Please model this.
Amino acid sequence: ALRALDIRELGARGGDRIAILSPNRPECAIDDFACLTALCAGVPIYPTLPAGQAAYLLRDSRAVAIFVADPVQYEKVAETRRETPDLRHVILFEGTAEGPGVTTLQALQQLGASGEGKYPSYEEDALGVTPDDLATLIYTSGTTGDPKGVMLTHGNFTSNVVNALEVLPLGPQDTALSLLPLSHSFERMGGHYAMVHAGVTIAYAESFDRIAANLQEVRPTITPAPPLTMAGRPSGANVPAWDRSTVATAAAPLTGGRASGPEPPPSVRRTTSGSSRPSRPSRSPVRAAVRNAS
Model:
């Protein structure tokens, strides 16, 4: 809840886009929910993208703020700052940097705490989100031209999360090992929103090379991942947790096996994956965030 107030104190308003440029870490998940509860739309950016491609996404999405992992990722933003006129704020998860509108996560938290009393209707505002409100922009890889921002609504995610948990009954007794970056659409839904909605504990893999070791350390009960990742055991010796894990591969198990319908016209950016409204009454991702913050 307080992190959403931090974002409001920056001057961000409902409908604004806020980017995250970082490898997976708890701050990414926390700030994604902060964006949702501040009624903003998140724009996840792969941390492996070069500066020019990251700048294109920031410019196209018209992001007003961006969270970056550290000074290394910040350099990508600084290098192309003149190309992103809408970007007003840069927040570093760790480390420091100099530049216009640059601050640290700690300083932002202090700013939000000082303004806590300004937003007495914060929870009411957050719960007023509708299924058709934009939740995020996830960009395509750009292999067939410039990347395109796919508009995913609260209803899109809620529909998939509800259907997923009808197929995979998960709960607080479960632990997930997150392998894919949160900028990946499958991970965002299956490894992030669905897990939080179900109360699952999430552990983030340190790297692809460390998957075998992380499986032994975490001993997850579920590991959402695409089939290619699960083509064989990760490199390494025996992985005792692997055989007793529920391994959800590909999108079908996490969307209830439901078809997405016909392809939309190329000009249509809004996703048609799942209904725009949940198949049964449920909390949207923002409602889960408000509930868990209470």
